[in-house]
Amino acid sequence: MKTCVFNQGLFFFVCFFFSSAGHIPSSVGVILRTTDKIVWANEFEPIELTCLIESISTNNPRIEWKKIKNGVPSYVYFQNKIAGDLEHRAQLREPANILIFNTTRSDTAEYRCEVAAIDDQRDFDEILISLAVRVKPVVPRCSVPDAVTVGTSTELRCLENEGFPAPQYRWFHNNEELPQDPKNSPKFANSSFSINPDTGGLKFRRVRKEDAGEYYCQAKNDAGHAQCLPQSMEVYDVDILGIFLKVCAVVAAFLVLTICTYQGCKRACTPKKGHAENK
Fold first, then answer.
1. Do 201 and 218 fall within a single domain?
2. Measured at the alpha carbon of residue 105, what is the angle toward residues 100 and 52, in degrees to the nearest 5?
3. Which of 157, 171, 226, 255 has its CA 20 to 30 A from that of 270?
4. Which of 122, 128, 30, 116 is nearest to 73 (CA)?
5. What does the pLDDT look like over 105-152, one tens digit per residue?
6. b or e along 168-178 (b: 16 or more beta carbons within 10 Å of the residue's beta carbon)?
């Protein structure tokens, strides 16, 4: 019973103390938070950066947004209007969120929300948000040899430079996806190829007759995928091109030897002018 009386007395004492000071503080100061400090968005799609005011006493606080790219800040929202490269592409939403209508790859940066409240004990707070915009890959450049010989090594290449994050690569043979490790697939257990999903290389240690056909590559990330047109690769039992080049080399050497022999005989058989007159 005495405890209750003491607590009530303490409560009235605290109330009287702050009343005599003229007010009871309703807020320690302005406090901000965000739902996500790291935000991902797909290019050309909308995204909202949240700047939530958890505590504030000032009725009309000053709200500003800055974009920080390569360490250089620039205004995004200043003096109650959208500025910079987001002008006409964004708007401020209550309480202090920024909605970007159609994000582009140039929007990848850090964004800082700043709120100043002059009537609060803690009159300023800020929060930093990192925005990364995913970019769908474009059609990759594929390189497939026209013809190879059984038992030789070769490499098929695939490259794409626009996608963000960097895409992963997959290869298809006659519209069937090839496994990265053929030993994990009974169908390709006897194959000698290997795929590097990071660089897009498809390497054959020893080409088989069954490796002939159409090949195409696909580049894929979280924003989408793109693929090149199928290209044919022939596989020959013998090196026809090599044999042809060797035959051409032998024929050329024979012709050169024949011409040289003919020219030599012609010089040897033609008498000099003085010698002919003496005769």
1. yes
2. 35
3. 255
4. 128
5. 999 999 999 999 988 888 999 999 999 999 999 999 999 999 999 999
6. ebbbbbeeeeb
Do residues 38 and 108 both lie within one domain? yes
Q: Using an 8 Å Cβ cutoff, are 219 and 140 in contact?
A: yes
CB 156, CB 202: distance < 8 Å: yes
- Per DSSP bridges, beta strands 231-236 and 147-149 are parallel
Alpha carbon distance 199, 202 (integer Å): 9
Q: Which domain holds residue 49?
A: 26-134
CATH code: domain of residue 118? 2.60.40.10
Q: Which pLDDT tens digit goes with each residue over 60-96? A: 899 999 999 999 999 999 999 999 999 999 999 988 9
Determine the residue type at 9. G
Contact 19, 110 (CB under 8 A): no
Domain contains 8: no
Are 166 and 104 in the same domain? no
The answer to whether 139 and 228 are in contact (CB under 8 A) is yes
The model's pTM is 0.68
